[in-house]
Every structure is written in C-alpha cells, then in structure tokens.
Amino acid sequence: MKARAAHLFFAALLLGSVIANRRAGETPPDEARLTAAVIAVAEAHGFALRQPVTLANGAFAALAFAGKGCAEPIAVALLPVAFDDAPLLRAAEPKGRRTTYFYYGRHWHEPSRPAIFWERKRNRALALFGLTPYSGAEFLLAVDAPRACGEVDAIDWRPVWRRDFLTALPAVSPRLGGRAN
C-alpha cells in the first residue's frame, strides 16, 4: 500500500513538473502593455485620457482620466507588487479624495501586503496549470479619485491583468508606475 501511494505521488509530481515546464516560458507583461490595458479599460468605461500626472507630491507617475460625473480627474498608477510606499501615498492624499488599490479581482482601500502576496502566489500556482485567465503581472493599480465620483467604483479593472486582453493590445509609450523621475 505504501509503495502504491509513493508511486502515485511521484507520478503526480512528474506530471505536474512537465506541465509547469511547458507553461514556465510565459513572461509577465511589461509596464507598456499594462499601461495600454489601463487606458483601454478606462476608456471603455467612458473616461478620457489626459496628460500624465504625479501622486504624493510628485513621488509617483500616474495617468489622469476625465470622466462624466467627476468634477476632478482620476489618477491611475501602476505600482510594484512589493509596494512599500503606501504610507507615503496615504499621507499625501488630498482631502476629498481616496485611493483604492486593485490587484487581479480584489481591491483594498488600504493595501494589504499579506493579501496581495497570497493573491499573487495563488494566481502563479494556478497559472502553472492554466487554471487562471490572469498573467503573472508584478504590478498593482492605485486609483486616486474624488470621493464624490461614483463612476470610478463601477470600473472593472480585472481585464488589465487578463492574458487574452493584454495580448490583443499594442504597447504604448507613456511610463506609468514606480517613482516619478
């Protein structure tokens, strides 16, 4: 009985490693492709791209979008998943605005490092076996919007990380993400 269980375990391990090796060649999307996805998703929800802006008193590069029903533009920044500067963004958040963080299908008003870590690991594990539609992106979104702009809450940001959506888009040139230069 023990030998049979050991054989099944090693057969499953072999099959899993073969499948993982076939899928390991997929590279995560770069900032340019994710930027194109952010623009496409925002425009699909009626928001028009404006010139790039910065968040946190010039610390982070972001894209600005204007939309109907919003008196002020919204700003969207791509931030590395290992984001350590959330306190800087929150401290510099102007009154009357809020920042929401999106990663795959989840969102937080305060970035939860453990939740983001586990979401990333879970999707990477599922991607090895082709069980998730999401790419292995290393960026999350920070969406800074006026509190009175309810249209922002209706935006479904999940396509930004969807593999099929990303491959259908051309890369764009505006840099979005990380610290501003």
Q: Secondary-structure blueprint of this entry?
A:
Layout: H1 2-23, H2 31-44, E1 47-49, E2 53-55, E3 60-67, E4 74-80, H3 86-91, E5 97-103, E6 106-108, H4 113-128, E7 139-146, H5 163-167
Antiparallel strand pairs: 1-3, 2-3, 3-4, 4-7, 5-6, 5-7
Question: Would you give an account of this structure?
Answer:
- A hairpin with a 4-residue loop joins strand 2 and strand 3 (60-67).
- The chain has a single domain (27-167), classed as 3-Layer(aba) Sandwich (Protein Transport Mog1p, Chain A).
- The chain has 181 residues and is of the alpha+beta class.
- The protein is elongated.
- Strands 1, 2, 3, 4, 5, 6 and 7 form a seven-stranded antiparallel sheet that branches.
- The protein is 35% helix and 22% strand.
- The termini are far apart.
- It contains five helices and seven strands.
- The longest helix has 22 residues, at 2-23.
